[in-house]
Amino acid sequence: MKFKLKNKKAQEELAGFALIIVIVAIVLLVFLGLSIGKTKETNLESEKINNFVNVVLQSTSDCKDEYGYLTIRKLIQKCEENENCIAGQNSCELLETTLEEISESAWLTNTQIKGYELSINSEKNEILLIIQGNKTENSLGSREYIGKSGKLLISFNTYY
Amino acid sequence: MVNKKAQLKIQQMAFMLIAVTLFFILVGLFVLGIKLSGLKKQANILEDESSLAILSKLANSPEFSCGEAFYSGKTNCVDEAKILALKNKKEYFEENFWGVAAIEIKKIYPEKKSIVIYEDNSQSKKYNSNFVNLCKKQVDSDGNVYDKCEIAELLVASKENEI
Predict the structure, then answer these.
(1) Cβ–Cβ of A25/B109 closer than 8 Å?
(2) For a Cys-Cys bond, which of A18, A155, B155, B161 suits B129, CB 3.0-4.6 Å?
(3) Would you list the domain boundaries of chain B?
Protein backbone atom coordinates (compact mmCIF):
# COMPACT_ATOMS: atom_id res chain seq x y z
CA MET A 1 0.00 0.00 0.00
CA LYS A 2 2.82 2.35 0.98
CA PHE A 3 4.74 1.47 -2.22
CA LYS A 4 1.67 2.12 -4.40
CA LEU A 5 1.20 5.55 -2.85
CA LYS A 6 4.89 6.45 -3.38
CA ASN A 7 4.68 5.23 -6.99
CA LYS A 8 1.65 7.39 -7.69
CA LYS A 9 3.37 10.45 -6.16
CA ALA A 10 6.43 9.90 -8.37
CA GLN A 11 4.24 9.59 -11.44
CA GLU A 12 2.43 12.81 -10.56
CA GLU A 13 5.78 14.57 -10.12
CA LEU A 14 6.93 13.32 -13.51
CA ALA A 15 3.74 14.44 -15.20
CA GLY A 16 4.10 17.89 -13.60
CA PHE A 17 7.70 18.15 -14.73
CA ALA A 18 6.78 17.12 -18.28
CA LEU A 19 3.99 19.69 -18.31
CA ILE A 20 6.39 22.45 -17.25
CA ILE A 21 8.85 21.41 -19.96
CA VAL A 22 6.10 21.48 -22.59
CA ILE A 23 4.89 24.94 -21.46
CA VAL A 24 8.44 26.35 -21.46
CA ALA A 25 9.06 24.84 -24.90
CA ILE A 26 5.89 26.40 -26.33
CA VAL A 27 6.76 29.81 -24.88
CA LEU A 28 10.29 29.59 -26.24
CA LEU A 29 9.10 28.53 -29.69
CA VAL A 30 6.57 31.37 -29.86
CA PHE A 31 9.26 33.87 -28.84
CA LEU A 32 11.65 32.37 -31.39
CA GLY A 33 9.07 32.56 -34.15
CA LEU A 34 8.31 36.19 -33.35
CA SER A 35 11.95 37.25 -33.20
CA ILE A 36 12.79 35.59 -36.54
CA GLY A 37 9.62 36.70 -38.29
CA LYS A 38 10.19 40.41 -37.68
CA THR A 39 11.81 42.10 -40.67
CA LYS A 40 11.79 45.85 -40.70
CA GLU A 41 12.87 48.20 -43.43
CA THR A 42 12.98 51.28 -41.26
CA ASN A 43 16.36 52.42 -42.53
CA LEU A 44 15.36 52.54 -46.18
CA GLU A 45 11.86 53.81 -45.40
CA SER A 46 12.99 56.67 -43.17
CA GLU A 47 15.52 57.73 -45.80
CA LYS A 48 12.73 57.62 -48.38
CA ILE A 49 10.49 59.86 -46.23
CA ASN A 50 13.31 62.36 -45.64
CA ASN A 51 13.97 62.40 -49.33
CA PHE A 52 10.29 62.84 -50.14
CA VAL A 53 10.09 66.11 -48.17
CA ASN A 54 13.21 67.47 -49.88
CA VAL A 55 12.03 66.44 -53.33
CA VAL A 56 8.61 68.00 -52.78
CA LEU A 57 10.17 71.29 -51.64
CA GLN A 58 12.40 71.39 -54.73
CA SER A 59 9.65 70.61 -57.26
CA THR A 60 8.05 73.24 -59.48
CA SER A 61 4.54 74.46 -58.72
CA ASP A 62 1.95 76.05 -61.04
CA CYS A 63 2.33 79.39 -59.27
CA LYS A 64 4.22 82.08 -61.11
CA ASP A 65 5.59 85.41 -59.92
CA GLU A 66 7.46 88.12 -61.85
CA TYR A 67 10.63 85.95 -61.85
CA GLY A 68 9.04 82.72 -63.11
CA TYR A 69 7.49 79.54 -61.75
CA LEU A 70 7.95 79.00 -58.01
CA THR A 71 9.19 75.92 -56.26
CA ILE A 72 6.93 74.46 -53.56
CA ARG A 73 9.39 75.85 -50.98
CA LYS A 74 8.79 79.37 -52.29
CA LEU A 75 5.05 78.75 -52.63
CA ILE A 76 4.90 77.94 -48.90
CA GLN A 77 6.61 81.25 -48.13
CA LYS A 78 4.22 83.05 -50.46
CA CYS A 79 1.27 81.45 -48.68
CA GLU A 80 2.67 82.46 -45.29
CA GLU A 81 3.02 86.05 -46.52
CA ASN A 82 -0.58 85.94 -47.88
CA GLU A 83 0.53 86.81 -51.40
CA ASN A 84 -1.20 85.54 -54.52
CA CYS A 85 0.32 84.18 -57.72
CA ILE A 86 0.67 86.44 -60.75
CA ALA A 87 -2.23 84.65 -62.51
CA GLY A 88 -4.46 85.44 -59.54
CA GLN A 89 -4.50 81.99 -57.91
CA ASN A 90 -4.65 81.95 -54.12
CA SER A 91 -1.22 80.64 -53.08
CA CYS A 92 -2.54 78.78 -50.02
CA GLU A 93 -5.33 77.03 -51.93
CA LEU A 94 -2.91 76.07 -54.68
CA LEU A 95 -0.43 74.81 -52.10
CA GLU A 96 -3.06 72.65 -50.43
CA THR A 97 -4.34 71.04 -53.63
CA THR A 98 -0.81 70.49 -54.93
CA LEU A 99 0.43 68.84 -51.73
CA GLU A 100 -2.72 66.73 -51.46
CA GLU A 101 -2.25 65.41 -54.99
CA ILE A 102 1.47 64.77 -54.49
CA SER A 103 1.00 62.91 -51.20
CA GLU A 104 -1.83 60.81 -52.61
CA SER A 105 0.15 59.82 -55.71
CA ALA A 106 3.28 59.05 -53.72
CA TRP A 107 1.94 57.20 -50.68
CA LEU A 108 -1.58 55.90 -51.23
CA THR A 109 -0.32 53.21 -53.61
CA ASN A 110 1.92 51.85 -50.83
CA THR A 111 -0.03 49.02 -49.21
CA GLN A 112 2.15 49.03 -46.07
CA ILE A 113 1.02 52.52 -45.15
CA LYS A 114 -2.19 52.98 -43.19
CA GLY A 115 -2.13 56.77 -43.24
CA TYR A 116 -0.05 59.93 -43.37
CA GLU A 117 -0.03 63.46 -42.03
CA LEU A 118 1.54 66.51 -43.59
CA SER A 119 1.63 69.77 -41.72
CA ILE A 120 3.18 73.19 -42.23
CA ASN A 121 3.38 75.52 -39.25
CA SER A 122 4.76 78.97 -38.72
CA GLU A 123 5.65 80.34 -35.30
CA LYS A 124 2.22 81.92 -34.97
CA ASN A 125 -0.22 79.61 -36.72
CA GLU A 126 -0.89 76.46 -38.67
CA ILE A 127 -0.57 77.06 -42.41
CA LEU A 128 -1.62 73.64 -43.67
CA LEU A 129 -2.71 70.26 -42.36
CA ILE A 130 -3.39 67.23 -44.53
CA ILE A 131 -4.43 63.96 -42.87
CA GLN A 132 -5.20 60.85 -44.85
CA GLY A 133 -6.06 57.38 -43.53
CA ASN A 134 -5.57 56.21 -39.95
CA LYS A 135 -3.05 57.28 -37.34
CA THR A 136 -1.31 54.34 -35.66
CA GLU A 137 1.40 54.06 -33.01
CA ASN A 138 3.94 52.79 -35.55
CA SER A 139 5.15 55.82 -37.48
CA LEU A 140 8.10 57.25 -39.36
CA GLY A 141 8.52 60.94 -40.07
CA SER A 142 10.62 63.81 -41.26
CA ARG A 143 10.78 67.47 -40.23
CA GLU A 144 12.41 70.38 -41.96
CA TYR A 145 12.67 74.07 -41.18
CA ILE A 146 12.29 76.35 -44.17
CA GLY A 147 11.67 80.02 -44.87
CA LYS A 148 13.90 83.07 -44.82
CA SER A 149 14.64 82.80 -41.12
CA GLY A 150 13.90 79.07 -40.80
CA LYS A 151 10.70 79.70 -38.89
CA LEU A 152 8.42 77.54 -41.01
CA LEU A 153 8.26 73.90 -40.05
CA ILE A 154 7.17 71.25 -42.51
CA SER A 155 6.63 67.82 -41.03
CA PHE A 156 5.53 64.62 -42.69
CA ASN A 157 4.60 61.41 -40.88
CA THR A 158 3.61 58.05 -42.30
CA TYR A 159 1.72 55.50 -40.18
CA TYR A 160 2.20 51.74 -40.57
CA MET B 1 9.24 -6.44 -5.10
CA VAL B 2 12.86 -5.16 -5.13
CA ASN B 3 13.06 -5.89 -8.84
CA LYS B 4 9.92 -3.85 -9.54
CA LYS B 5 11.26 -0.93 -7.46
CA ALA B 6 14.51 -0.98 -9.42
CA GLN B 7 12.61 -1.03 -12.72
CA LEU B 8 10.60 1.96 -11.60
CA LYS B 9 13.77 3.82 -10.63
CA ILE B 10 15.30 3.08 -14.03
CA GLN B 11 12.11 4.27 -15.71
CA GLN B 12 12.17 7.43 -13.60
CA MET B 13 15.80 8.08 -14.54
CA ALA B 14 15.05 7.46 -18.22
CA PHE B 15 12.22 9.99 -18.08
CA MET B 16 14.49 12.48 -16.33
CA LEU B 17 17.25 11.99 -18.90
CA ILE B 18 14.80 12.50 -21.78
CA ALA B 19 13.38 15.61 -20.12
CA VAL B 20 16.83 17.08 -19.42
CA THR B 21 17.98 16.36 -22.99
CA LEU B 22 14.82 17.93 -24.40
CA PHE B 23 15.35 20.96 -22.19
CA PHE B 24 18.94 21.47 -23.37
CA ILE B 25 17.91 21.00 -27.00
CA LEU B 26 15.29 23.71 -26.58
CA VAL B 27 17.75 26.04 -24.88
CA GLY B 28 20.18 25.40 -27.76
CA LEU B 29 17.46 26.14 -30.29
CA PHE B 30 16.59 29.34 -28.45
CA VAL B 31 20.20 30.58 -28.47
CA LEU B 32 20.58 29.59 -32.12
CA GLY B 33 17.35 31.40 -32.96
CA ILE B 34 18.52 34.60 -31.31
CA LYS B 35 21.86 34.41 -33.11
CA LEU B 36 20.18 33.69 -36.46
CA SER B 37 17.67 36.51 -36.03
CA GLY B 38 20.59 38.84 -35.31
CA LEU B 39 22.27 37.71 -38.50
CA LYS B 40 19.08 38.19 -40.47
CA LYS B 41 18.67 41.70 -39.03
CA GLN B 42 22.28 42.49 -39.88
CA ALA B 43 21.78 41.17 -43.41
CA ASN B 44 18.66 43.32 -43.81
CA ILE B 45 20.49 46.43 -42.60
CA LEU B 46 23.40 45.73 -44.96
CA GLU B 47 21.00 45.14 -47.84
CA ASP B 48 19.19 48.41 -47.06
CA GLU B 49 22.44 50.33 -46.88
CA SER B 50 23.61 48.82 -50.12
CA SER B 51 20.32 49.70 -51.85
CA LEU B 52 20.49 53.24 -50.52
CA ALA B 53 24.07 53.58 -51.71
CA ILE B 54 23.17 52.34 -55.21
CA LEU B 55 20.10 54.62 -55.41
CA SER B 56 21.97 57.67 -54.16
CA LYS B 57 25.00 56.91 -56.35
CA LEU B 58 22.81 56.58 -59.42
CA ALA B 59 20.74 59.72 -58.79
CA ASN B 60 23.86 61.78 -58.23
CA SER B 61 26.02 60.19 -60.93
CA PRO B 62 27.11 62.39 -63.89
CA GLU B 63 24.99 60.21 -66.20
CA PHE B 64 21.78 61.08 -64.34
CA SER B 65 22.18 64.16 -62.15
CA CYS B 66 21.02 67.66 -63.03
CA GLY B 67 24.40 69.15 -62.16
CA GLU B 68 24.36 72.91 -62.56
CA ALA B 69 21.81 72.86 -65.38
CA PHE B 70 18.83 73.41 -63.10
CA TYR B 71 19.41 75.87 -60.30
CA SER B 72 22.47 75.01 -58.24
CA GLY B 73 22.67 72.74 -55.24
CA LYS B 74 19.88 70.28 -55.97
CA THR B 75 20.46 66.79 -54.63
CA ASN B 76 18.62 63.71 -55.86
CA CYS B 77 17.79 65.57 -59.04
CA VAL B 78 17.67 63.64 -62.31
CA ASP B 79 17.93 65.29 -65.72
CA GLU B 80 15.14 64.00 -67.97
CA ALA B 81 17.07 64.78 -71.16
CA LYS B 82 20.01 62.63 -69.98
CA ILE B 83 17.67 59.77 -69.18
CA LEU B 84 16.04 59.84 -72.59
CA ALA B 85 19.48 59.89 -74.20
CA LEU B 86 20.63 56.87 -72.15
CA LYS B 87 17.44 54.89 -72.55
CA ASN B 88 17.95 51.42 -74.04
CA LYS B 89 21.75 51.74 -74.18
CA LYS B 90 22.19 48.28 -72.72
CA GLU B 91 25.93 47.87 -73.37
CA TYR B 92 26.70 51.14 -71.63
CA PHE B 93 24.90 50.04 -68.45
CA GLU B 94 26.44 46.57 -68.52
CA GLU B 95 29.91 48.11 -68.68
CA ASN B 96 29.46 50.94 -66.18
CA PHE B 97 26.77 49.90 -63.71
CA TRP B 98 27.95 46.67 -62.16
CA GLY B 99 25.39 44.84 -60.05
CA VAL B 100 22.41 46.76 -61.40
CA ALA B 101 19.75 44.60 -63.05
CA ALA B 102 17.22 47.30 -63.96
CA ILE B 103 16.73 51.07 -63.72
CA GLU B 104 13.32 52.68 -64.05
CA ILE B 105 11.87 56.13 -63.47
CA LYS B 106 8.26 56.32 -62.34
CA LYS B 107 6.79 59.81 -62.65
CA ILE B 108 4.44 60.56 -59.75
CA TYR B 109 3.41 64.18 -60.10
CA PRO B 110 1.94 65.95 -62.05
CA GLU B 111 1.65 63.13 -64.59
CA LYS B 112 2.00 59.41 -63.99
CA LYS B 113 4.30 57.63 -66.39
CA SER B 114 6.99 54.97 -66.29
CA ILE B 115 10.26 55.12 -68.20
CA VAL B 116 12.34 51.93 -68.28
CA ILE B 117 15.93 53.04 -68.75
CA TYR B 118 17.68 49.70 -68.54
CA GLU B 119 16.69 46.10 -67.94
CA ASP B 120 18.87 43.03 -68.18
CA ASN B 121 17.72 39.48 -68.87
CA SER B 122 17.92 38.22 -65.27
CA GLN B 123 14.76 36.63 -63.94
CA SER B 124 14.85 37.50 -60.24
CA LYS B 125 15.06 41.19 -59.56
CA LYS B 126 14.56 42.96 -56.25
CA TYR B 127 13.50 46.57 -56.70
CA ASN B 128 14.24 49.40 -54.28
CA SER B 129 13.14 52.96 -54.78
CA ASN B 130 13.70 56.50 -53.65
CA PHE B 131 12.13 59.82 -54.55
CA VAL B 132 13.90 62.15 -56.98
CA ASN B 133 13.20 65.38 -58.83
CA LEU B 134 12.94 64.85 -62.56
CA CYS B 135 13.88 68.14 -64.17
CA LYS B 136 13.68 69.42 -67.72
CA LYS B 137 13.74 72.73 -69.57
CA GLN B 138 10.30 73.82 -70.70
CA VAL B 139 8.91 76.75 -72.65
CA ASP B 140 5.95 78.62 -71.15
CA SER B 141 3.09 80.32 -73.00
CA ASP B 142 5.10 83.57 -73.28
CA GLY B 143 7.99 81.77 -74.95
CA ASN B 144 10.24 81.89 -71.90
CA VAL B 145 12.36 78.89 -70.99
CA TYR B 146 12.00 77.74 -67.40
CA ASP B 147 13.06 74.77 -65.23
CA LYS B 148 10.29 72.28 -64.58
CA CYS B 149 11.04 69.81 -61.82
CA GLU B 150 8.53 67.02 -61.36
CA ILE B 151 8.37 64.34 -58.68
CA ALA B 152 9.38 60.82 -59.57
CA GLU B 153 10.54 57.58 -58.05
CA LEU B 154 13.86 56.10 -59.10
CA LEU B 155 13.59 52.31 -59.04
CA VAL B 156 16.72 50.24 -59.11
CA ALA B 157 16.85 46.47 -59.17
CA SER B 158 20.00 44.84 -58.01
CA LYS B 159 21.04 41.36 -59.08
CA GLU B 160 19.89 39.38 -56.05
CA ASN B 161 23.01 37.29 -55.48
CA GLU B 162 25.30 40.29 -55.67
CA ILE B 163 23.99 42.10 -52.61
Answers:
(1) no
(2) B155
(3) 45-162
